[in-house]
């Protein structure tokens, strides 16, 4: 349900159909400010680069490493009573797969604003997520660590990029 306090575009992003997003992906798109310097597809964008907004950034992180609420784990049985089942490590559901709920994914990512480390090991769903169907954009942001300010510039030759 659209809320008047939602940032611009948030409701639209949440309600964009999955298969429209999947089937609409095409290589005809070209990033603003990007360039293919030579070859048969030589092209330079006449647009300036446009970084993701903070909301867009957080939505991507929530989709990649977000919490989805509490899951039901493995059913209770007399062997485990009165404790929770011993097989599943976490009662929190995630947007990415994890055997037995271990969710120990830690990863690095970069964008024009910096280089970041994101640990999902200790992030847990908020208690009110059980009926929520929107991404929890605060959970990934709360465990993100900025390692470096600014763009990570890799040398533009092999082995850092594919050779010609």
Features:
164 residues, alpha+beta, 3-stranded antiparallel beta sheet, 18% helix, 18% strand, extended
List the helices and strands and how they pair.
Blueprint lengths: L9 H5 L3 H6 L11 E2 L6 E2 L9 H12 L1 E4 L21 E3 L11 E6 L2 E6 L17 H7 E6 L15
Antiparallel strand pairs: 1-2, 3-4, 5-6, 6-7
Helix pairs in contact: 3-4
Describe this protein's structure.
By secondary structure, the chain is of the alpha+beta class. It has one domain. Helices cover 18% and strands 18% of the residues. It contains four helices and seven strands, in the order ααββαββββαβ. The strands form three sheets. It has a three-stranded antiparallel β-sheet. It has a two-stranded antiparallel ribbon with strand order 1-2. The protein has a two-stranded antiparallel ribbon with strand order 3-4. β5 and β6 form a beta hairpin. α3 crosses α4. It is extended, with a radius of gyration of 20 Å. It starts with 9 loop residues before the first helix and ends in a 15-residue tail after the last strand.
């Amino acid at each position: 349900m659209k809320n008047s306090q939602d940032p611009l575009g948030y409701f639209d992003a949440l309600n964009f159909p999955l298969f429209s997003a999947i089937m609409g992906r095409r290589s005809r798109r070209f990033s603003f400010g990007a360039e293919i310097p030579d070859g048969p597809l030589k092209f330079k964008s006449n647009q300036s680069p446009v970084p993701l907004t903070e909301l867009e950034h957080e939505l991507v992180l929530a989709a990649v490493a977000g919490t989805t609420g509490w899951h039901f784990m493995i059913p209770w049985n007399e062997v485990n009573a009165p404790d929770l089942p011993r097989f599943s490590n976490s009662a929190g559901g995630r947007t990415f797969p994890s055997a037995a709920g271990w969710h120990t994914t830690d990863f690095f990512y970069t964008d024009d604003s910096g280089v970041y480390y994101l640990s999902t090991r200790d992030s847990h769903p908020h208690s009110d997520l059980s009926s929520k169907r929107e991404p929890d954009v605060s959970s990934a942001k709360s465990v993100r660590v900025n390692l470096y300010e600014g763009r990570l510039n890799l040398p533009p030759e092999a082995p850092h990029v594919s050779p010609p």
